[in-house]
């Protein structure tokens, strides 16, 4: 008997298959996120993948084919979404460096959808498994790497993610993309060369990224809560980078970042914060006391990069929709429970 599920009397095929589809949602979200560079777009793509899967159950032959079948659908959804779309990039690659960390630096605003958005680790990374594989997965969702992926033509992007991140075999990728093994291997080689060139020319290159440092994060959050500018600056590398989409501003140096905190950023004094894990790195959500009643309200999600015992990158995503996407409450008191 051909099929993937045994239906209960009265149960629809879609309803019977739904639990098995859900088992693949996290890895599909991670795949679509790397392809699209946006958590919001990735969620939409996975939802569309599930809808298409339900509508074409008759095309699935054999229970072992479910995962590859879903990846084929997800790839096609992503390729459709990327058709004619401009690539996303890191904020520092979308604007000129601001040498004056003053309110006027907030005049420029980036186009909506121009920058790579953050992803919550638990939404895109697998749980458990081989530590070496987990390390590769974490590296592949770092903001700089996801931005570099966007330089690749969509089909090359899919090949590189499937081969180098997800460890698919060449013949499996060729079958998914309905091409030859030679063509898939050629696409992989071109993709690797493009990434290598991009990393060599990166505008604000990363040092070797360190493993998340819980103590450094705790010290940074303590300094941020106290709004101790001197302590904050002491935790930054001397040429640390800070950006804040949707604004085009970006700063490069601990001194300028300190000036920013003491000037335009001073409205963050008295904020509430909760640590997170974003893009394989430490991060935190910030609720700022910006209401007329002095109440804390969602303000930003901050992604951090650490190396050499210091913070080297800080990106404050001023998009409060991320709080809903990441399951963060609007009331910070709830987040502490």
Explained architecture:
The protein is an alpha+beta fold and 337 residues long. The protein has helices at residues 13-22, 25-36, 39-55, 66-82, 121-124, 131-139, 143-149, 154-165, 170-177, 181-200, 214-226, 229-234, 254-262, 321-325, 332-335; strands at residues 236-243, 250-252, 272-278, 281-289, 296-307, 310-317. A six-stranded mixed beta sheet has the order 2-1-6-5-4-3. Helix 2 (25-36) packs parallel to helix 4 and helix 8 crosses helix 10. The N and C termini lie far apart (51 Å). Residues 1-9 have low confidence and may be disordered.
Strands in their spatial order, largest beta sheet = 2-1-6-5-4-3
Strand fraction: 5-15%
Assembly state here?
single chain
Order of secondary-structure elements: HHHHHHHHHHHHEEHEEEEHH
Overall body shape: globular
Helix vs. strand class: alpha+beta
What is the number of helical segments per DSSP (H or I, 4+ residues)? 15
Alpha-carbon Rg, integer: 22 Å
Total count of strands: 6
Mean pLDDT: 88
* Major beta sheet summary: 6 strands, mixed
Uncertain runs: 1-9
């Amino acid at each position: 008997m051909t099929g993937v599920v045994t239906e209960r009397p009265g149960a629809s095929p879609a309803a019977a298959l739904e639990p098995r589809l859900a088992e693949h949602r996290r890895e599909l979200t991670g795949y679509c996120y790397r392809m699209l560079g946006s958590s919001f777009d990735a969620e939409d793509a996975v939802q569309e993948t599930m809808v298409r899967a339900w509508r074409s159950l008759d095309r699935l032959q054999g229970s072992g084919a479910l995962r590859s079948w879903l990846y084929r659908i997800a790839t096609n959804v992503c390729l459709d979404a990327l058709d004619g779309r401009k690539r996303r990039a890191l904020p520092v690659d979308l604007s000129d460096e601001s040498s004056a960390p003053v309110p006027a630096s907030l005049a420029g605003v980036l186009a909506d959808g121009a920058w790579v958005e953050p992803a919550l680790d638990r939404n895109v990374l697998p749980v458990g498994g081989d530590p070496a594989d987990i390390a590769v997965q974490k590296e592949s969702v770092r903001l700089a790497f996801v931005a570099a992926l966007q330089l690749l033509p969509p089909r090359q992007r899919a090949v590189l993610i499937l081969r180098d991140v997800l460890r698919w075999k060449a013949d499996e990728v060729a079958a998914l993309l309905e091409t030859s093994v030679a063509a898939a291997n050629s696409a992989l080689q071109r993709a690797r060369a493009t990434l290598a060139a991009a990393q060599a020319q990166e505008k604000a290159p990363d040092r070797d990224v360190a493993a998340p440092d819980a103590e450094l994060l705790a010290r940074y959050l303590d300094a941020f809560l106290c709004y101790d500018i001197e302590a904050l600056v002491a935790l930054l590398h001397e040429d640390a980078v800070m950006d804040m989409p949707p604004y085009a501003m970006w700063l490069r140096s601990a001194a300028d970042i300190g000036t920013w905190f003491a000037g335009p950023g001073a409205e963050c004094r008295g904020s509430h914060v909760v640590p997170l894990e974003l893009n394989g790195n430490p991060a935190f959500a910030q609720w700022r006391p910006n209401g007329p009643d002095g109440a804390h309200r969602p303000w930003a999600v901050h992604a951090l990069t650490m190396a050499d015992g210091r913070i080297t990158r800080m990106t404050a995503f001023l998009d409060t929709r991320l709080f809903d996407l990441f399951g963060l409450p609007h009331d910070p008191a709830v987040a502490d429970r």
